[in-house]
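Quick one before lunch.
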Amino acid sequence: MQRYFVPPDQLLDEKLVIRGDDVHHIVRVMRGKPGDELIACDGEGRCVRARIVRLDAQEVQAEVLEPLVERRELPIEVTIAQGLPKGDKLEWIIQKGTELGMAALIPFCSERTVVKWEAKKEEKKRERWQKIAKEAAEQAHRCRVPRVEPPVGFAELLDLAKRHTACAIAYEQENTTSLRTVLERVAPGDSLCVLIGPEGGFTAAEVARAEQAGILPVSLGPRILRTETASQFVLAAVSYHFEC
Ligand code: SAH
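Model of the S-adenosyl-L-homocysteine complex:
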């Protein structure tokens, strides 16, 4: 059954309203009509089965039939802190990371970041990233839409990272501690943040600063992964460790 995310204030106990791009999808793509059923989620974990009552080009109104109890989210809330990559790689990271259960993404700039980030000019880009996350969450039948945070500098990133139950920095020169060490320290309900460097990686000084902030350097295995592969490896490893 097709799934749509609606703002929490549009998903009430007995009825819901869908507006925006999803109306086009329901009316034109799905050829929806009164009586058809769909799944609506508020993006924060509440999902319901609903039946369309009325629809036009602007708005779809539906009645709520029953709440859905689904286990689609990773038992650990995983935030990927991703060094801003070149081109449109971040879009791919968001889409695939959403499929693999990422809870949030924090893009960051560090010493070896190549792209220039100008907050004012790039607001549109962030909207686009959030839209990619929403559409991928619908496709993956998730109950939550990952949050895509505004890009931050390295110092701010360390502050944000420390707020999680556990935090690691993926460093290819680390050869004693593996990601598994961190996964063995967290339990369902905990939050985990993993820092992934940009194409050029982290400098030794950055890794030392992260360590001082209590962030554990970890290896992701014996091969060097591209930055966009590293985040997906982390998410798949969390899923394998806790769900498979
Ligand atoms: N500086 C390196 C690799 C950068 S790879 C070089 O150019 O040779 C980009 C990022 O992916 C790294 O900063 C790291 O966070 C992560 N990464 C890739 N392979 C890894 C591995 N085997 N172990 C830990 N982290 C890895």
